[in-house]
Every structure is written in C-alpha cells, then in structure tokens.
Amino acid sequence: MRHLPTLVLTTLLLSSPLHRTVAQPNAGTISSPETTITETERLPDIVSQQVHTDLAQILSFVFKNNITIEDISIDRYSRETWSDSCLGLGGPAESCLATPTEGWQIEAIYQGQSFFYHTDLSGNQIRRSTLDNNLPSSLQTRLLQTAEAAGFGEDLSIVEAQPKLWDSCYGLPTTADICSAIGIYGWQAIVTDGDHYWIYHTDNLGNTIRLNDIASTNTAVPTFINDAEFEELGSETTFYSNVMGGIIGLTTVSRLNNDGELLVYSHSPDQQIHNRNTANISPQQLDGFYNQLTENNFNSFNGLLYLPKVDAADYGIVTLTNGASQVAFADFIFSDVPPQLQTVTQGWEALQAETKPMPTIPVADNSQTELSENIQTQVRTNLANHLGISVDQITIQSYSRQTWSDGCLGLGGPAELCLAALTEGWQVEAVDTDTNQTYVYRTNLNGDQIRREP
Fold first, then answer.
1. Spatial CA neighbour of 253 closest among 142, 119, 403, 382
2. Mean pLDDT score, 355-376
3. Is CATH 3.30.160 the classification given to domain 227-357?
4. The pTM is what?
5. 327: which residues sit within 8 A by CB, 6+ positions away?
6. What's the Cα-to-Cα distance from 21 to each of 51, 54, 177, 385, rounded to whole Å?
7. Domain edges within the chain
C-alpha cells in the first residue's frame, strides 16, 4: 500500500478551498458505497458523487495528473448533526449560524490515504475536514457515555482516534477466539481523564464499543504508530524487533526466521554493520515463545506507541512486530508499559540471550571483491543524469563491499516499506571531475538497485 507523502498532504491542505457550494448534477453516476450491517440509511448517490468529484479535482491538481472518480472509493459514512451551518469546520474569521445542521461524515480513500468530508444532507454544501481527529461526533458522544458508565469519571476526553477495518473480534482476540477476517468498519480511540488512558475499539456507528483493557494504562502515554513506520517482514521472518535512537545512535535489529535462526546485529547511522550474533532456536523454544505471544494477546497492542508521561530527551524506541501486529515503546519506560507487553518483551530478550558472535560474515558471494563494470556504468549514468552533464565527466573514485540493514539499502523514505532483511552490496564514491564534488551511492550486490545518498 502506498501512502501520500507528508509534503503532498500539506500541499493538498493549502492549495484547495476548505469548502465549496456545488451545483446538483444528475444523480446515479457513482455506484453506492458498501455499508456496514448496522447502517440503515443509505448515503445518497448525489452526495457521494460530490465528494468523489471534489477529491478527484484536488488530487489531479496536486499530482498534475488525471485522477478520476473511479480512483476514489467511499468505504464508510455516518449521519451526523453538525453544531453550526459551517458543518463544524468554520474558520476563525468565518461567520457560522449557530443552528444544528443535519448531514453526513464521509471517508473517501485514494491509494490507502483517507480524506474526511462533512456535508449537509443533500450535498449542496461539502467541506473537507482538516481536523486531526475525525471521529464522528455521534460516536464521540456514545464513546464518552460508555466510559463514564464504566466508572472512569466524568471529566473525560478523546485525545486520538483513527479509522480501522476490524476482524470479527474487533482486533481483540482471546486464546479461545477464532476471528474471521470479515472486515468491519470502525474506529480505535484513546480516552483519558488526564492520568489514565483507555483504548477503545468500536464499529462505525458505536453500536459495538469494546474496551482494550490489556493495552490501557496509567503509567505511560499511548499514541498511534504512523502507517509509514510499520515494518514489512519477509515470508521467512516470524518475529522482528529494533531498538532505534538514544544517546549512542546505534540501531539494534533482531530477526527470527521460521527455521529457528535468530540473527541480532547493530548498525550505525551510516548503515555500517556491527556486532553480528546468531543462534538456532529449538522447536520447543519457538513453540514456547509463540504461545507466549498468544497468551499475552500480543495482537491487542497493534499500532500503539507508548511514550513517557514526563518530558525526556535522547531515548530510544523499541519496536516489536510479528508481521501482523506492531507495537513500540520508549526504551527507558519498560517497567511502565502494560504487564502483558512486558512479559512478551522479556520472552523475546530471553531468546536473544541465546545468541553468540558470528565468526564470519555470511554473504551471497564473498569472492566478489571488484566492482563490476555494469554497476560502475549505472552509477556514472545516474549521476550524470542527475547533474545534467556528460557521463564522461564522472569517474569512480572508490568502492567497498557493505552489508545494508534492509531492502532499501538503508535509504528508505518515510512512506516506503522496506524489507527488514540484510542486503549485501556496495558503497561507491563517484566524482564530478569539473567540480571535484564527491557523491556516494549504495547498490545491492548485482546492481539491480542503486540509490544516491542524500
């Protein structure tokens, strides 16, 4: 799934109007959206079409490309009563009538990125939401009422919420549950009284509201992991972790393969590999660890990042993932994260303690010590095209064999999914002979992939 870069989203917000009043075209040209089984009122085709058209025009302008209404889907919506005539989205200098306005909240999706709209009932007025929290107001009310009824207090607020597509267990399986991937539109929200944080999972309308008690806490501050930060594991990897940042600046990666091989290594910010350790974990140990994940409901922590309740600097982030679920926390608050997450982390550390230093570095072809002419040509051509000069002005100054930390050669972008696997390759220094400026490239071993360092 590709995500729109932050720069594109910022441009999108700044380059398009916050609202527009639209004429009524012929209805029925957009197929009606799918609804959840609890939704009894169908979104009018005319409203759906207005949203499709508005977003397609904005995206076409941003990408300088023809984005059609067929490229956009509407997967969820809800009837809402907006607080004013500006549909709850009035600007600071805008005069809005303080009269309740019936309408819709609609989520439109383009290439995995959600855009929320507020409309009136007929679609005469539509506004794209710029709010950080787009949890429908009707659902906010039900959610806070549920938390109050549970005895969590009256001075409660919803600090974060994100749309979700749940399985039949709403992302909260127990050891006895069999969860079907039926696809239930809903939300995950964080409710707080300023000290305690409760994680809730709901359907789209609030008819089903479930407390994620395992992930709730009063000793750390939970927030959501950005989609772009999720690790992509290869089919051979069953569990993975990294500890990134901190004062030292090293990143430590641990990867458990389904054949029982556990590899632990560290790399510096320049992606140089250090301290390779490995172990072969026995089938009994593997079964014990996998059972521990299930018994402690590891999947209930999916998408959460736990941060300290007090300001701190120079701490690392620990990330754990089994491919299906990912959780992270600040490294120095281990004792403050929920107990089940502590248990899983301790079990994972016990496996890591089995590793021993590797005597040699296994590479795909350790005999290859000379940079091929093909890679040299690719680097020179790429740099010449980048600088707009003749390839004859580019020379290869030096090169060395390297082991990169991932499938993106350690240069993945913020919205790029990189395979979490060591990649053998080259570091190449190329020089513009006219300016004597040096440029550094990274490649894989055979030159199928080359990237210039920023």
1. 403
2. 69
3. no
4. 0.70
5. 225, 298, 301, 302, 303, 304, 305, 306, 319, 320, 321, 341
6. 12, 11, 49, 46
7. 6-128, 137-218, 227-357, 373-452
